[in-house]
C-alpha cells in the first residue's frame, strides 16, 4: 500500500495533464511472509488492495483524461475460490487483519470484482474498467519458496507447468497491450477477457456477485482511507 500511495502521488504530481491507461499488474504468486506492513494478508495487500488504492488516487486524473482505460490483470485461477470470503472485521488485534481474505486465487477474484464495480461507478465518465487473464506466462512470480512447507509441492508443480507450457513474457504482454490500445474496446467496460476476447463463460459464479463486489469496495475504501 505504501507503493500505491507513493506512485499515485508521483503520477498526479508529474503527469498532471492526463493519464490515458492504468494497468494494475504487479503481484506475487508465492508468500515470502504472512502479512504486509499494515498487517493485511500478503496476497490481499499486494495483489489487490495496493491496486485499489492506486486506482482510487488516480480516478480524478483518469476522468479528466477520458477516454481512458483501467485494466486489472487477474487470473483464471479465480475459479478455485469456492465460497465468498467473509468481510467481517474480526479481531484487528490479531497478527493478520481480515485473514478470511487470503490466498492468491482470492486476490485474483478481487481484481475481477474491482473492475466490475469500477465499470458501474464510472459509467458515463468515458473511463472503462476491465479485467483479464493473460494466460500462463513464464515470469518470476514463483521464484521464491513459500513460507508454508505444505505449499511447496503445489508451487513446484506450477513451476514445471510454467516452464514447459507457459508463454513468454513478451507474448503475455501482447494480451495486456491489446486491451490497452485496441480501438474496438474503447467503449467496452466491466468485462473479463481471456485469449483476447470477452470470456464471461469462464467467470466463476462468485465473480458475478455484484453485491459482494459492492461490499468489497466499501471495505476496501474504508481500509484505504485509514492509510491515507
UniProtKB/TrEMBL annotation:
The keyword Cell membrane does not apply. The keyword Oxidoreductase applies. Keywords: Oxidoreductase. GO terms for molecular function: oxidoreductase activity. InterPro entries: NAD(P)-bd_dom_sf, SDR_fam. Belongs to the short-chain dehydrogenases/reductases (SDR) family. This is Retinol dehydrogenase 12-like isoform X2. It comes from Octopus sinensis (East Asian common octopus). The gene is LOC115222064.
